[in-house]
Design brief:
Layout: H1 6-18, H2 29-66, H3 70-84, H4 107-134, H5 139-152, H6 159-162, E1 165-168, E2 171-174, H7 175-182, E3 185-188, E4 192-195, H8 199-203, E5 206-209, E6 212-215, H9 216-222, E7 230-233, E8 237-241, H10 245-265, H11 273-279, E9 294-299, H12 302-309, E10 322-324, E11 329-333, H13 340-354, H14 369-379, E12 383-387, E13 390-394, H15 401-412, H16 419-424, H17 427-430, H18 435-458, H19 461-471, H20 476-480, H21 485-489, H22 493-511
Parallel strand pairs: 8-9, 9-11
Antiparallel strand pairs: 1-2, 3-4, 5-6, 7-8, 10-11, 12-13
Helix pairs in contact: 1-2, 2-3, 2-4, 4-5, 10-13, 13-14, 14-18, 15-18, 15-22, 18-19
The protein binds zinc ion.
């Protein structure tokens, strides 16, 4: 069990503090000072509430130990971890409303359960007030508070809808799901959203096709032509595919899980008013329309992928996935031999970041290009595991192949370009060179992304997100004057280089010769 210290709380949420004022240039000095003061006050209040809550939880935990309730003890330990770890402990929100505390428990034990729930609800209530207070001045800070409080009270009646959920009976669902259910559709595990009345025919191997029913085999043949392919709609994605309905549905589920992770972890990346609306997604209780979804094309084979794209991208055969800035589409193909997931999460990262703004623009052309690829490579390690109450995700396992190579390049090949020099590379010079150079650059970029996400419980994480926010910004003057990571972290390049080396060495010691995960 980890005992949270005041220092640990501070380090974890320093991220929030960094993110407070994102664009001070829009305020004059006096107003800036005033705003800064209000936000500092909000942040202090947050810390105070949290410290109090932590000690309350610790005392409840001791009582749970005394009464021999292992399950409750663990539950409290999990909550404590959320407050002290670098955000990894956050869980996807449960769909079901929290069940009532049973009446048939021994009185003393029941009282403890009630106290625990009450303490969580009180804390969540306090964070909600803080979020309301800071929402206008520091929407990303407010958004992080909303996410945090939902970990303690997932049924909070004001906060949960701010994440785009509506309540139906004893369940929370998105507006999209609610609309589907209203039009009598069900989310079939294999076929995705289909009309409830069609379920039996689907399961019997029939498929609707232009106002008639045909066999699944026949449909499969007809839809091999990509323009006649399946059109699969999920909450945030629009998938066109000629692989199969089932594979398309599976891809949609992966992308939605990834989206959920991304939006809650990368809140500081979203800092313009237009993007904040994106963060507090579907607060109006309406689901998205087709043009608001991320478009994905998923081909049957590599050959088809290459044929379709080679005219525009001559080197397409060297890639195994692509996000095309110009048409705002991610392209993938089905490959039974390879880890499709890594490619999917890589390209989805490019897509979610780029489409955080409406403007057509270049990204990293003048410099800082390494992180555009580094963060996408880092996200390749995104993994979803099923749990009894839904699913859980993780990202950044140091055994993952990208990080294995990051260690190898630095420690075995002695390849390292100092961060200051590395950051100067724009898109074109970064992508030039022989295969080995490119691989070395990608490995270093992956390792550095890991470092900036996780070093010392994530102290640099928000700085990294602000860096990305500037690189992807729609305002050309912000894009031209991207602040370096030395400025954003307040730590010199030389020190960052040294810390990175130590970080990689420590990681190597920790991982040892465990087999890399592909
Ligand atoms: Zn990429």
């Amino acid at each position: 069990m980890r005992i949270p210290s005041a220092l640990a709380i501070r380090a974890t949420l320093l991220g929030l503090c960094f993110g407070l004022l994102q664009e001070p240039m829009i305020l004059d000095n006096r107003l800036f000072a005033q705003t800064q003061h209000q936000l500092e006050k909000a942040y202090e209040d947050y810390q105070e509430e949290t410290a109090e809550f932590v000690s309350k939880l610790q005392s409840l935990q001791q009582q749970a130990v005394r009464l021999g309730d292992r399950e409750l003890e663990q539950k409290i330990a999990d909550r404590l971890e959320i407050l002290t770890s670098d955000g990894e402990a956050m869980k996807p929100l449960p769909r079901k409303l929290q069940p009532a505390i049973p009446f048939d428990m021994p009185a003393e034990l029941r009282a403890l359960h009630v106290q625990f729930r009450q303490a969580c609800e009180d804390y969540a209530g306090q964070l909600y007030l803080l979020a309301r207070r800071s929402q206008r001045l520091a929407p990303t800070f407010a958004f992080e508070l909303i996410n945090l409080l939902l970990q303690f009270d997932p049924d909070h009646t004001q906060a949960r809808p701010m994440r785009g959920y509506v309540r139906q009976g004893d369940e929370w669902m998105t507006a999209f799901e609610r609309d589907k259910l209203r039009s009598r559709e069900i989310d079939h595990p294999r076929f995705g959203w289909i009309r409830e009345d069609d379920r039996e025919r689907y399961e019997a191997g029939e498929r609707p096709y232009h106002n008639t029913w045909i066999s699944a085999e026949k449909e499969q043949l007809l839809r091999q032509n990509f323009t006649q392919g399946w059109d699969i709609e999920t909450e945030h994605f629009q998938i066109k595919t000629n692989v199969s309905l089932e594979k398309g549905v599976e891809l949609g589920r992966k992308l939605e899980t990834f989206y959920d992770y991304f939006i809650s972890t990368f809140a500081p990346f979203y800092n313009s008013p237009e993007q904040i609306r994106q963060l507090f997604d579907s607060t109006t209780g309406r689901s998205k329309n087709r043009s608001q979804r991320y478009e994905v094309h998923f081909f049957r084979s590599k050959q088809e992928y290459v044929e379709r794209l080679i005219r525009r991208i001559p080197q397409i055969a060297m890639t195994n996935g692509l996000y095309q800035l110009e048409d705002r589409v991610s392209y993938f193909y089905y490959d039974p031999e390879a880890n499709n997931d890594a490619t999917i999460f890589h390209e989805a990262t490019h897509q979610l970041m780029y489409e955080s703004h409406l403007a057509q623009r270049d990204v990293g052309r003048e410099g800082h290009f390494w992180i555009v690829e580094g963060i996408a490579c880092y996200m390749e390690s995104f993994q979803v595991t099923e749990t009894p109450d839904g699913f859980d995700y993780s990202v950044g396992d140091p055994r993952f192949i990208r990080f294995y190579w990051a260690r190898h390049r630095l420690l075995e090949e002695d390849y390292y370009v100092p961060l200051q020099v590395f950051s100067k590379l724009g898109m074109i010079p970064y992508q030039q060179g022989d295969q080995q150079t490119l691989q070395q650059r990608y490995s270093q970029a992956s390792g550095l992304a890991h470092f900036f996400m996780h070093f010392e419980n994530g102290v640099y994480r928000t700085a990294l997100m602000q860096y990305l926010a500037q690189i992807y910004h729609s305002n050309p003057s912000i894009q031209r004057n991207v602040q370096g990571l030395d400025k954003l972290t307040g730590v010199s390049y030389g020190t960052l280089d040294r810390q990175y080396r130590e970080y990689i060495q420590d990681q190597q010691t920790m991982v040892g010769d465990q087999i890399p995960i592909q």
